[in-house]
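[job 0412] stage=complex_fold ligand=pyridoxal-5'-phosphate status=START
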Amino acid sequence: MAPTPPAPPGNLGDLGDLGGILPVTSDLDAAGRLRVGGCVLSELAEEHGSPAYVIDEAGLRAQARRFRDGLAERWPASRVVFASKAFPSTAMYALMGQEGIGADVAGPGELAMALAAGMDPGGLVVHGNAKTDAELRAAVDAGAGLVVIDNADDIDRLERIATAGQAVLLRVLPDVRPDTYEAVSTGQKGSKFGMAVEEAAGAIGRLRASDRLRLEGLHVHLGSQIFDPAPWEAAVARIAALGEFPVYDLGGGLGVRYTYAEHPPTVEAWLDALAGAARRHLPATSTLLIEPGRSMVARAGVTVYRVVTVKRGEPTFVAVDGGMGDNLEVSLYGQRFEAVMADRPTAAGKPVELVGRHCESGDKLVSAAPLADPRPGDVVAVAATGAYCFTMANNYNGALRPPVLFCRDGRATVVVRRETLQDLMRRDTWSAS
Ligand SMILES: Cc1ncc(COP(=O)(O)O)c(C=O)c1O
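[job 0412] stage=complex_fold status=DONE, emitting structure tokens
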């Protein structure tokens, strides 16, 4: 399998492997400070505060086009649908829409944001294993292109709610277990998502007989952060046995390079595997959909933090002004990240424990991070935080959720502002009087 291509030569000097993890536009200014999208990270932290999510807009657009064009080359009748759970903000939906990409929405907020951002409702794919009447009604009223049936209750509900001809897909549980974290593995028997193959056959019969719902095809999603694309072969073969349909949605799941040690397949290798499986098992006339989330946005993001304290010893703890309030991936799955000093970037510093400010020992950002002499006040950047970190940001210890800065050609645009103390108390109805 083709390894992740190396960073474009020259833009990060001799920073070695860092170039394969940081956003693609990363480079150093004349003073050796790290830039993303032409913006100096430490200057962003100074101007906008920290922590802050910095997004490489050009890198993100390039990745969107890589998926879109790569899939179209391999399977012309195809559509890329961004799994918006990976980064649900109006700016992100708008950008995806501009790049000709649809959105997978799995909840009323995601649907509302996609519509508010001006996305074409026809390009929306509505997911969820527990969709309420209200959510289904909102999807139908919005004109959502596809609603994905997860269970028999979805069929009951949607038959009551849908006006004639709502297009649907059926999510099938192919009983394929990819090699990934248990919490994000969804294709195996026993998963709460979708219908087992035997049950799916009955649901297909029911949907085909419906005069309110139009069964367009089948959907599978095997999980997330998957490095070996082989399980898609088995999954596609399983769903192919259920009959011929005009549409097949093969979900997301391509793994991302978070650390120096990891080497996920390239987008192109993943697309080769999916299109190859489709060619072997699915009708040549069918339309193919994919739903990349993590692999679409992870690399475009870095989070900038400021060092608050350094406790020297064995080990040395470097505590920053964020942590599990803005990055839950570490405590949820044990995901490892890499970190770098924004103004003294090197992949070869003395290992320290980079920890957050929250009241749990598990609130670590990077264990044994090779940081070059971190001191209070320094800015540290954690790489590959573009996926699911903004999504799962929370108010633990009253943390104010960070802003999102889209950076491009040396200009930073605040597309989500930092939360304020007023925001934090806005929903409280208790009053002192
Ligand atoms: C239905 C569905 N599609 C796509 C995705 C995106 O997966 P990933 O972010 O790993 O590409 C998910 C998330 O797990 C999902 O639940």
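The first helix runs from residue 41 to 48.
[job 0412] exit 0
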